[in-house]
Amino acid sequence: MCLLQAAxxxxxxxxxxxxxxxxxxxxxxxxxxxxxxxxxxxNALGCAMVDEMLTSGIRERFIEPLEQCENxxxxxxxxxxxxxxxxxxxxxxxxxxxxxxAQEMSSVDxxxxxxxxxxxxxxxxxxxxxxxxxxxxxxxxxELNVTQIxxxxxxxxxxxxxxxxxxxxxxxFRQCIEGMRQYLDIIATPEWQTKYASSGAVTETPSxx
Amino acid sequence: MCLLQAAxxxxxxxxxxxxxxxxxxxxxxxxxxxxxxxxxxxNALGCAMVDEMLTSGIRERFIEPLEQCENxxxxxxxxxxxxxxxxxxxxxxxxxxxxxxAQEMSSVDxxxxxxxxxxxxxxxxxxxxxxxxxxxxxxxxxELNVTQIxxxxxxxxxxxxxxxxxxxxxxxFRQCIEGMRQYLDIIATPEWQTKYASSGAVTETPSxx
DNA sequence: CAATACATACAGACCGGTTGGTATGTAACT
DNA sequence: AGTTACATACCAACCGGTCTGTATGTATTG
Lengths: 209, 209
Hints:
The structure is a homodimer. The first copy, chain A, contains eleven helices and no strands. Chain A has a domain at 54-198: Orthogonal Bundle (Tetracycline Repressor, domain 2). The longest helix of chain A has 27 residues, at 110-136. Chain A has helices at residues 3-14, 21-28, 32-38, 42-67, 72-85, 91-94, 97-105, 110-136, 146-167, 170-187, 201-204. Chains A and B meet through helix 7, helix 8, helix 9 and helix 10 of A and helix 7, helix 8, helix 9 and helix 10 of B. The first copy, chain A, binds a DNA duplex through helix 3.
């Protein structure tokens, strides 16, 4: 097994500082000499893992499914459906590998923080672009700030996973997804709202100036 | 300084596993003998810290301000205002002490996980009760599930703090608070909505420079 | 062609420092 | 005198990192 893959799995389970090189080496089936031939130290291995594993993970799970959609609102609803169905994953027991690392390392190691921040920023900016395109096409309310929405969505997704992980309870995650669906009705133009939240005022209020 | 206080501060900065007993002892001004006289091991000290420091922290910051409000919607808006103003805190550089610990320890140590989960559950349930009372009084839409809303709000708050901490950027936190304000319009009855989302206010908010 | 020289890609023993935890000592209070 | 409440010295385990050794490939040169 590849060193980066082994590092990913081990770190996902035990955190970066809780993972010994020995454990990664054992899993990868290589020796310490091999590791230190390719990487100067443990930190560099971790950073490389972030760059090559986590970046692609976020892209595949959260960005690409939306980029292929004509309508970001329905795309996000579909993503919510996906989460609801396939939420039995390790993702909810072990948490999001990216956010785990972010919370553990951000205030401890600056190089780590920057790598992770780059992944989050890419995610937010991709989502922002998708939403902006949705605005142009009339799916997303034009008067809203897509930068702000993108940040809110990313924060909510990570918060949801984190809460469910701590409680070891998928139902919490489902409740959060429900909240996300409600939120989508705010940012959608009236004709693309699902009226999810309720009957009544929310769906009727939109008076675009 | 009290041992628990010292443990709180040190763990908040470096995480539980990243904090040595030596560091806590130095800060508290006591010796190892004193510590092991009161606690059987490091884990027990950490758990006691969760019970006695973090529980009260959540209660003071997030629960009590709402319990004193007649209307939970305006109460939550006021809480958002508070965050917006006093967000220069260590809270955004070091993150939420509770969530830091939750993300670091949940999948590693079961006793820790349970203590932290109890704090989160208390928070969610308190918020749920507050919202339910708001429903009875006509401030919060009756057709909505207050359990789900409470979970969503807690997840979003923690996600927001975590994202801002990783980016070391308060503006991200502000953007998330903005999203929270929008969300409040969903759960409020029409007469208590701020029309925050659909008015021009949002578009004029300071975007990134 | 073949001998040499050198670079690459590992393997594995070893080391210094740190850490959680323990064992023993001791002063004060009851 | 005995219990409580510490203080201090010490230890075994672990961990990141280094050092030396070695097998293989490749460029150079007589």
